[in-house]
Amino acid sequence: MFDELILDKMNEECGVFGVYNHPGTPQFIYYGLHALQHRGQESAGIVTSNRQSFTFHRGMGLVTEVFQTKELEQLRGTMGIGHVRYSTTGASSLQNAQPLVFNYHDGQLAIATNGNLVNATQIRRQLERQGSIFQTTSDTEVIAHLIARSMYDNIEDAVKEALGMIKGAYALLIMTNDKLIAALDPNGLRPLVLGKIEEGYVLSSETCSFDAIGAEYIRDIDPGEMLIFDREGMTSKRFTLQTRKAICSFEYIYFARPDSDINGINVHLARKRLGKRLAEEHPVEADVVTGVPDSSISAAIGYAEATGIPYELGLIKNRYVGRTFIQPSQELRDKGVKMKLSAVRKVVENKRVVMIDDSIVRGTTSGRIVRMLREAGAKEVHVRISSPPVKNPCFYGIDTSSREELIAATKNVEEVRQYIGADSLAFLSIEGMLDAIGRERLDSSHGYCLACFNSEYPTEVYDGLLIGQNREMIQVGEE
Amino acid sequence: MFDELILDKMNEECGVFGVYNHPGTPQFIYYGLHALQHRGQESAGIVTSNRQSFTFHRGMGLVTEVFQTKELEQLRGTMGIGHVRYSTTGASSLQNAQPLVFNYHDGQLAIATNGNLVNATQIRRQLERQGSIFQTTSDTEVIAHLIARSMYDNIEDAVKEALGMIKGAYALLIMTNDKLIAALDPNGLRPLVLGKIEEGYVLSSETCSFDAIGAEYIRDIDPGEMLIFDREGMTSKRFTLQTRKAICSFEYIYFARPDSDINGINVHLARKRLGKRLAEEHPVEADVVTGVPDSSISAAIGYAEATGIPYELGLIKNRYVGRTFIQPSQELRDKGVKMKLSAVRKVVENKRVVMIDDSIVRGTTSGRIVRMLREAGAKEVHVRISSPPVKNPCFYGIDTSSREELIAATKNVEEVRQYIGADSLAFLSIEGMLDAIGRERLDSSHGYCLACFNSEYPTEVYDGLLIGQNREMIQVGEE
Amino acid sequence: MFDELILDKMNEECGVFGVYNHPGTPQFIYYGLHALQHRGQESAGIVTSNRQSFTFHRGMGLVTEVFQTKELEQLRGTMGIGHVRYSTTGASSLQNAQPLVFNYHDGQLAIATNGNLVNATQIRRQLERQGSIFQTTSDTEVIAHLIARSMYDNIEDAVKEALGMIKGAYALLIMTNDKLIAALDPNGLRPLVLGKIEEGYVLSSETCSFDAIGAEYIRDIDPGEMLIFDREGMTSKRFTLQTRKAICSFEYIYFARPDSDINGINVHLARKRLGKRLAEEHPVEADVVTGVPDSSISAAIGYAEATGIPYELGLIKNRYVGRTFIQPSQELRDKGVKMKLSAVRKVVENKRVVMIDDSIVRGTTSGRIVRMLREAGAKEVHVRISSPPVKNPCFYGIDTSSREELIAATKNVEEVRQYIGADSLAFLSIEGMLDAIGRERLDSSHGYCLACFNSEYPTEVYDGLLIGQNREMIQVGEE
Amino acid sequence: MFDELILDKMNEECGVFGVYNHPGTPQFIYYGLHALQHRGQESAGIVTSNRQSFTFHRGMGLVTEVFQTKELEQLRGTMGIGHVRYSTTGASSLQNAQPLVFNYHDGQLAIATNGNLVNATQIRRQLERQGSIFQTTSDTEVIAHLIARSMYDNIEDAVKEALGMIKGAYALLIMTNDKLIAALDPNGLRPLVLGKIEEGYVLSSETCSFDAIGAEYIRDIDPGEMLIFDREGMTSKRFTLQTRKAICSFEYIYFARPDSDINGINVHLARKRLGKRLAEEHPVEADVVTGVPDSSISAAIGYAEATGIPYELGLIKNRYVGRTFIQPSQELRDKGVKMKLSAVRKVVENKRVVMIDDSIVRGTTSGRIVRMLREAGAKEVHVRISSPPVKNPCFYGIDTSSREELIAATKNVEEVRQYIGADSLAFLSIEGMLDAIGRERLDSSHGYCLACFNSEYPTEVYDGLLIGQNREMIQVGEE
């Protein structure tokens, strides 16, 4: 990954986007994926169907790099699915790019997923023992095998059977030459929304992509829901009744784009409320409030508004850091060469600065930013985090480091403060976070996954011990 | 150019960066240019000297695209100059990439410039009549010819003679295998700053690049000043005494990065003051203030702070629009496919919105954004512009459209309001702008160029009538 | 495919190359595949193992295009297999590039094959019915599934079991992290040779690759033989006793490089003998003998030597036709724009020319060359073909057109002569061909496949009727 | 340069191709340059004119690499010139790619040349003293300056004046928006031919390119001739009467394509006669004759025909060596890894081999091939060279090494034989060579340059002492 800031963040794995029944399918998926680019920059792919056969293209890089005019024009069809991927493992390779496309007994199938299964390794081992071969390391291939091995003849029942076997977090799009199917895990851990554009339907990880193509938002997919799109139109089914909503709270805190709404709650406004609540819980005497761009801007505005301390651009991000950026050597970094963030001297000089960040994962970047502010003349640096301390790893597709690397797992707040060199440090409480995002909606059918904060995992965690045991083949020299 | 927003803005031509006497020269120029990337994304180039001969590389695209590890590692030397370019004309081509390197009677020479000469066409014609050949269409080649044709043996006098002949706006870096020379036009129309890094000197269009490499800012170059760096160290000379400071006010309004200081004034803080003054001059009853990202954010914060109306992220920019982005067809745009900006429904719905923009050039983008806000549910849209109306073309290297395309040249404020469909529209006054940026510094030796607002051009405008008469060769298939 | 001449030829599918137990494995495979490049130019791939895990890279294009220094340096290990591919179908795509790498119950496996199965479609359908998914359209994936589904724990027995199920032509290299296995089909339809380099073993489609890396030729693999390389050294086993040698006669006629030996017979010398025998069977009064470059040169030399008619370069091939060559439009071709072959006027003008070609498939190219010679002034053009008429399609991996397109399937020799516009035309007899290549070796264990000439297929042809029924997904925008 | 064989050869600098008055101009130049590709593989360029303005494209690599469909389609016009370049110096760079295009007092001008001036450095110095700047290191830029500085208003006289000042070898194409001008140096050292295609004219370095596009050969340009093409049609002028034909004999020996005719003499047939004469002068008892591919094949055929010893393919060249080929390390080469040439064991084993090569320059490659043949089992290796010993450097655009590197300059034949390890070695005599190429044509107006054999340079050699003193800028990271 090319971004020093992101390196020290929790990172999303993927974004998915699908269109059913519209002649503009390839273009819509292109622009839709482009709007989801923040969810994954490693690879991009689109599969479309003209109801006879698939055309597809996948590649490493941004949507705009993978798809040039030629590739986009060659995609044909009125239905399709697309995917952007962020790699959580070292196994960054074209092989793992999605959507996965394959032939099976009933024809052609394409799958794109966002999320992570907690029993994928188990199922994979079992499938291998039964003679399956795996050409990728992604969970998506596991789901493909389960569908292909189902005894059911029709795709809906086969998918349903497969979903009955997998556990974990997943927002799933499946396409044959007849049907498009969307499904969400029983806890609704990952976001998935439904929209409409003229006579067609659209499905996406986030509503911001609907705005990008002029589609109308209809509703969020429910946990355990399966939507089938075919010549009959749209049908909703439940593949399980044992559901308990637990959407990833980090979607609000960090992942999603501020202009998206999740479960009807706008992300920017939720973040601003997180900042306000943070101000209430942890006020401080100071001269300026600044946010770490881009994800902490909303919270910083909220904190400033609540405290009356002026909000300033005290930290500026270089917009042109791409995948080919040459990282400065450690020697150069020690001498002050910055990678992508600068402190604005005239803004922070001789000032008491409140620095708002959305989260602290390993703490290294936070420490670096605090030092940067001090070098730019800040008299005091008070760090305020708009989420609770992250103490537990995520098994649902978020790339947290292992538990030992989570600074809050082994250090208390005061120790973390010393580590990052701040004058003061405070985290938002879990209660405060829930209030700010929207507690009123918290009922039996609607809750948040808080596992990384409080270790209450909404599912069993089968593969936990097995992680990292996958036999990895290293693909070199992409492209 | 890849950016719909930028298309309707005034655009800077270039950024320059130089290092003298440091072993890290190639790296510093790389990171320095990267920090100046906002000043030009079309081409990038670096020339270095090991005091014996030059090594150089130029290419189309971003600094990070043009320079990969291999190219950077092959650059050798302890002094060098670099350039990023934004094309103001259709003649976007590798040929015109800078720095220009050539051999002349006294050895090797490299030149990089930011700016535009007002008598380049005249001089070019004259040089051609004397037998010169021109391989590019850039003014820089004109300067190169003048230096090479000088009767003076030493480079300093030759440069001085050349500068005596050219008129217009220029921040200039010249390198031989012995010396580095920096020069600024007699009006100081373009920014150029001097810094220090260990035993070496650095020169740049903006201070933000000094922060990026850990260099220390020393001072801005004076109008009519020429700095010579050689084994003797640094020497300052005046190549003319007829100077009158008139720095481009748009550097503060739009071009420069918010973390840069120009003449000691921080750009973000200046913009925030522009927003505050705008609030004083043109208040309005409203529910939210939002800025058009990225350049209008600071002014929007200032406006919000002054009025007490909450500042919100009502408009979101997609960060991943690159040069290979496929523009949606007009048909798709009509259907709502957006290119890079989205309005945030939950923020603006049923709200009276103040939309802050830094300038209106042709008015088409402003109109589109107003419409976008209305479609997202805004009840009222009040547009406030943090600069005066742009009524005259720029001849100093800024890519304004021709006078007929400048909406404020032919329409009054009410007509412009109707054109963009706003509920109200107001521009900052020239007086207000000067106060906000920093009137106290306005004296005989320190002023602003206001020509695009009030047609008081600080120089004669010789080539005005000739523009567009250049004989252009079209280079196809760059890369 | 980029070659007008090749378009009208029978075309090989692939070349394979393997190394066991040598630190220079990646380099040897690179240079070895490069020597096999004539067997396939569509894609190239290398997998190596350091006995713990695989590293691999595959891509579209020539070996030298797919592997740059970086990719080659990243390959690690002391054993490995490589592949070059020529696409016989429209499904030219990275997906189908080999070697195939995957995980199965026993770890990692890589496979590379040259050849074609005649019951692949049958087995594929059966595997799909059992729940297998297919991500490529290549027969290699079928073999991979069979190995993975074997009940045997050890790879040797699993491979043996798989080979017992497949029928057709195959030279096969399989690698795990412990072993390298080579196998040849029971008819030995495809060539596969064993060599030695220092302490290591090498396997290849052709001996010319041994010369390229300085390896020593040991022997040809036997039909139905399986060679296992592991820490114990090399072991030879028979996976079937029902073998009957029937090597593709076109390897001698056209496919193989002239410096290769197949079954101890040098290809250039065999071709020269084909030319001599052709002269005996079909002499003609003429002034010059010329061969269609490159594959017919040897036969032309032989014909000239036998008849005493001088051998000349009457046809010249442009060496620089690559994949990016822009084909002339039909209009330009009609006007005389040539793609890669020219007749040499001074050589053929007013001469009676014997034009030697190795085969006629569709006849279009032959006709074009005859016309070219006449336009260059040839008085007479006598076409002599150094192989018998091709009347039947190949099911063993050779890209002949369908039967209807084979000109000799529907036209007699006189009709073909008229079609190509020659003054006379003659083909070598089957008897003559066998004599020339080496009849003395023709015994029960050593024969040639003559199916395309006489329809005596050495295996059953199960999939014959099914060909073309595969469900193809179209991958667009390679690379 | 990518070719080990070529490294040890004399190498041509360039090929030129021009079209006047044909709508197919861009395509014809593309296919024409493609046919001249053997004359230069480093860079390619095309400039076309629609009589109003130029469109052009230049790039590094083969014609087919530099020009893709897009670039070719963007070229517009009914006249144009093109160029392929082989770099004789280290200064391989895009900067030096031709045609050179520029603006001067009279409009636009494009120039492409093949050859080398012997007083370019002198003129360059003088021009620099007069204030000219040089952006390339090519002689072509010198000619451009001379034309631009001419006092004459019309291009013909300006060109004539420039040609009066330059000395050396040149085949020259010049284009304005009105005219196309071709010129050949007073000695006709480089080839240049005129052809016709429908209503248009074509000009080329070799006739093989006329065959490629279906053009009709008219005649060779005369030494000191200038052809002007404009709306009046074609006009021939002499820019000097002091001409003395001395065409480079190496065009026949090595450079030109065998299907080209130079001065009416076919190159293949000339080479075959060189081989025959070589057989007469230096017969030897042997079993096989083999030629070093590709340039020595014709001579080898001639030698075989004259002696009755069978001609065989004893050496095979890999056709797929391109610019991205990874050279084997010295260690690998010592172990036997070959770059592009293989000896055919079955052909040479236990045989007395006559190895025909067209020339020996440094002797290293010859030695390597002799060794290769011995390792493949040759009993004796008799080397016969179809040209006289090269003892003197070329100043006319041929990349011979400096005199010290020319093995025949410092060693006698016996010493060379020992150096290359041959059993015997013999060179063709100068007399024999002249007879073979065509002595009957040798008269006052028609002769050969033999300078590299006998040091009789047809011109003065002004720059001889200055070579290598150019101030070189190193351009890195092409592409």
Please give the count of helices of chain A. Answer: 18
Largest interface: A-B, 63 and 63 residues
Strand content of chain A: 25-35%
CATH architecture of the largest domain in chain A: 4-Layer Sandwich
Q: Write down the CATH class of the largest domain in chain A.
A: Alpha Beta
Which word captures the global form of chain A?
globular
List its salient traits.
7-stranded antiparallel sheet, 6-stranded antiparallel sheet, Glutamine Phosphoribosylpyrophosphate, subunit 1, domain 1, Rossmann fold, homotetramer, disordered N terminus, 479 residues, alpha+beta
Report on this structure.
- 4 copies of one chain form a homotetramer.
- Chain A is of the alpha+beta class.
- Chain A folds into 2 domains: 4-244, Glutamine Phosphoribosylpyrophosphate, subunit 1, domain 1 (4-Layer Sandwich), CATH 3.60.20.10; 266-317 and 326-437, Rossmann fold, CATH 3.40.50.2020.
- Chain A is 29% helix and 25% strand.
- The first copy, chain A, has 18 helices and 24 strands.
- In chain A, the strands form 6 sheets. A 7-stranded antiparallel β-sheet of chain A has the order 3-2-4-1-10-9-11.
- In chain A, helix 14 links the parallel strand 20 and strand 21.
- In chain A, helix 5 (120-129) packs across helix 6 (139-149), helix 10 packs across helix 11 (297-307) and helix 10 crosses helix 17.
- Chain A is globular and about 70 Å long.
- Residues 1-7 and 465-470 of chain A have low confidence and may be disordered.
- The interface between A and C is large, with 46 and 45 residues.
